[in-house]
Amino acid sequence: MRGSIQKALISLGVAGALAACAVLYPCFAAETKLPRAKVLLLVAGPMHDHKAIGKVVEQSLKDYGRFDVTKVEGNLNALLAEKLKPYDVIIYFNTAFKLSDQQREGVIEFVAKGKGLVVVHSGADTTDKQWEEFIGCRSVCREPRRKHAVEIRDKNNPITAGMENFEIEEEDFGLRFDIERVTILAISPGKDMYTPPMPAAYTMNSGEGRIVYISFGHDAKVCSDPNFKKLLCRGALWAAAQPLLEPAPKPAE
Q: pTM for this structure?
């Protein structure tokens, strides 16, 4: 029996084997050092307090225990192809700063070769047609900040598995998005005026890589919300093609 299990784990590869071990041997996830993803956290633009957002998100990623984080503030040249080589996934907070052709192509090439991208909130607020096509959406309007009820639509996806519907105080984007290319994870019922309902979070594939979009993330308060942090951290692992096993809880002091 043990030999057949070992052969099966080998055939699954590293990520699959780790996930299978967590099911077969419940103590495995707590005792095994899980793989870490190398993250470029880019925060930029004048429309949001990107420094405060960057501080909160960087700490959330570190606390999650699965990421090695490099934070860059305001310098879009971090997206040039040569600069992206060390990373597994980009987390992209940017408002109003337009990407150059070289910066945009750096990200597109990065994802096409099997890496990941998480676009947050106003990263979709763009007039760049190529960027819109690449990430699968564009912000076309926004609703005033208020408390939104968020409905989890895909409870089988590893990013949203086990998550319940929740509320979050946030402005809400109306999106033009490509329904044929995206997998919707969550919607805000406040978007029911739109047909089809627009996503609060979705995933899509691009080339050999993966993209996640999360519509929330206006300020540090929103980014401190436990459900936002779960979507972001799990989404970053999924985009980086890492197993989505939860890290073992830190022992009480």
A: 0.79
